[in-house]
Amino acid sequence: MKTPEMRRGRRAEGTEVSLEVIESMLDDLLEHELSTAPHVLRTLVVELNADLPAVREVAAHLTPQQRHGLRPLPAPLPLVPPIANVYAAIELSDADRDVLLAAALRLDDRLDPLLEFATRTAHEILVGPAGPHLVIHAGRYRFADPRLAIWLRETTAAAVQVQVHERLETVFRRRGDRVSADWHRARSSLHGDPATASELIPIARELSEAGDTDRALLVAAEAAEHAVGVERDEARLVAGAAAIGAGYAAEAGQWLGDLFPEGAERWRLQGLGGLIVALAHIHGDVPDIDPAALRPRTDDHDDWYSWTRAAALAAVLCAERGDRGGMRTWLDALREGCARVGAERELRDPVVALSWLLTGEQETIAVEGSGPVSGSVLAALRAALDGDIDGGLRTLANGDGTMGGEADPFVAGFEHSPLVRAYREVAETLLLVWRGDISLARERLITGSIAAPVAMPFAGLAVVLARRLDLAVLGTLGPFARSLTAALPPGLRVDRLVDSGIEAYLDGAFAKAAASLQLWQDRGAPEAALGVPGLDEVSPAGGERDDDRRRVEPLEQSLARELRRRVSAAADGRWRSEFAAVHAEARMLRSPFSRASVEAMLGVHSMIRDDHATARRYLQTARSLFADAGAAAWAASIDRRLALFQAQKGPPEESPDLLASCRHAWESLLTSRELEVAMLVVGGAPNRDIAERLIVSVRTVEVHLGRVFSKLDVRSRVELTVLAHRTSRHL
Question: 0.85 cut: is pTM over it?
């Protein structure tokens, strides 16, 4: 099995890539139907020296799972014509080529071993033919153009590569570097070498726990090629754990799936949690299995702890997906296991608290977890939900700086992994959204998406956030959001109806927006576990779900939603006083985005009631607040509304579906039969014709119409018709 060689030291220096370059390349790949996850594209850009033709051709050689980050990139990357053409005329002696090949085959970037291999000084290398191809600084080296490493490995005979590996083994053995020596020994071996596997497996474990997941996967995969018997199961476990830590869900599923059902029980139990994570991400749901069927068959403490931690992971994954039944099943298993291994405080309590938080259930225990997830992320979310969003952000910032020395029983061994980093990135983005810093949240998520597999945490929440943030800032979906959406595995779906509704609303197409929202409600109003603002703004009429799921969001977000509901329901003669009360309460909202959405609704509904001066004041306030939040598209929509309002001199030309917006706006205020009567009256039908059409008496029509007049605060059919046209015009 091929896996990527990650030379982290060489990538750490001289590899800064601008967001503009990444964005442009993402867009190009999308146009060529080669959607690529942002963090995968960044690796390609670095390895291919930002050569767009090479990136595009290499992407075309990759599988969708490799492009989407579900499997690692091949090593070396394919030698495509744009790379081959660069080095078509290169001339190197065998000795210089060997030096450069050794540099390409190394696991790290220390200079001294390379000098020992070359039997030259740094100065001698720099002034020789190999010099222009290497950058040497502070005892480290890197390729001036990383594409050369691909060309060298793809154009050098296998026998020559074996010889270079053998020479490198000798160098590192002499230097006492067993990690590199064992690695090169394994790479130079033409046959299985079980002794090498025994040495590589613990090395791979150390690399994985240090966060060097790609190199750990590389070493563990090599160990698996040489191992036999139970040791091969251990190598598969380490490879699978490294893969899930890197975000390679499909790769992890393959390595860890090979342990079931015949693998050694110890390694199966240690790999169970990672396998559940992998399958949940690939298929969308946590596997429907009975935890009891996987209980250890011995009394070994370590085996029971592995089973218990797998139950903890499964419980949280179920909570992320809104599966309360599955969550409770796995929490029962967690409690059983923790009671057996004595891990109630450090494992059970934080996991129960996180699971309850994600499903909106009431917490009854005070928890102080440790580490990046059960410590920092849990504490940050709880602080934000309690109203202290700034405190939550500080917790994440402090956790990011100190997580190096803090263990986390929930994600033990993965504290430094890209996957755990992704959880932190998504949590920080969500808190910034809740605080109303829309533009900053978008920038933070984009930066995080090129560094970590952000689509995995919280059941793909980052994709929902990316889409909503793009709509708020750009008014449409940009390359990052579209690429993240395309990279989601089939099992994780994003409901596009809400997003299409927001986009239509921002364009002024209220009827289309409301229709999208209605379809979304008809489908059960699916939402991410953690509340993402932007839904209620689609329609002034708003919308609530039919079930009892509570949105997991700060109280301020709930208050803003309630205020919008009050605005849309204010149809009686007290609307002026109600609007004034809502406006006063809205001033208490600290999120500029949340308050802007309330002020905008106040403005629209004041327009509908022909209170133009008040409407303009509310809308201007909303526009300023949207701009302050960085929600440029929302601010622009207010600008367009104000400009249209200013330009209107008389009634607009009416199209056949002009009153569709009115129908959607009145749906939350009238019963279905009252709405039917109201729209027929607006259409000009007399009561007798309405009675015949609805197969009711004229008296029944009059009763319904009287209720309509009362609810909409009008006194006659004429006023009702005028209100209908004003509603459609201003929406």
Answer: yes
